[in-house]
Amino acid sequence: MEVKVLNISGKETGAKVQLSKDIFGIEPNDHAIYLDVKQFLANQRQGTHKSKQRNEIAGSTRKLYKQKGTGGARAGSIKSPLFNGGGRIFGPQPRDYSFKLNKKLKALARKSALAYKAKDNNVVILEDFNFDTAKTKNFTSLLGALNFTGQKTLLVLSDANKNVYLASRNIQGAKVVVASDLNTYDVLNARKLVFTTGSVKTLEEALAK
């Protein structure tokens, strides 16, 4: 798949990039995508939820009232879950939600997500660039030149760039990542994928292993 290279003004530079068929042209695997996104979201959970069980409630251990003759149900402790302020039955406890996936499956999921974006013509290639200053208007101008204003956009760089990252930070729906940190969830969550020529090479080398 051949894609024209644009500059930050949105104009063609005359250069073209050949996207690898082994990455952007594969038959997507929906189940691999599902598992990878599920793992990503699970890993975001803190798992610090906690409620007190019956043995953790502070309260007297005396019997509330006599066993028989009251006309009510038997009650032995004020800590019972049946009473207001009692312990909770099967309440949430701290736990780790993360789980393991094989590297090959995660790579397949990323390739599948990228293939979907390429199939829908939502992949744009920019020549390598840098901002002189970390100003939001620089990134806003870039999105305007590409006609991506108001759309969820993921910009993939080959290396970390502080000015570009800071310029995008205040723009809703815009995100900047390094090619080595690209994940399936971010790819699918974005409407448009913007790669630099350097990031395409970095990504293809990483997924070719």
Automatic annotation (TrEMBL):
Top-level taxon: Bacteria
Record keywords: Ribonucleoprotein, Ribosomal protein, RNA-binding, rRNA-binding
Pfam families: Ribosomal_L4
Region ranges (Disordered): 45-77
Keyword Ribosomal protein: yes
Gene Ontology CC terms: ribosome
Role: Forms part of the polypeptide exit tunnel.
Family per similarity comment: Belongs to the universal ribosomal protein uL4 family.
Quaternary structure and interacting proteins, as annotated: Part of the 50S ribosomal subunit.
PANTHER family, alphabetized: 50S RIBOSOMAL PROTEIN L4, LARGE RIBOSOMAL SUBUNIT PROTEIN UL4M
Protein name: Large ribosomal subunit protein uL4
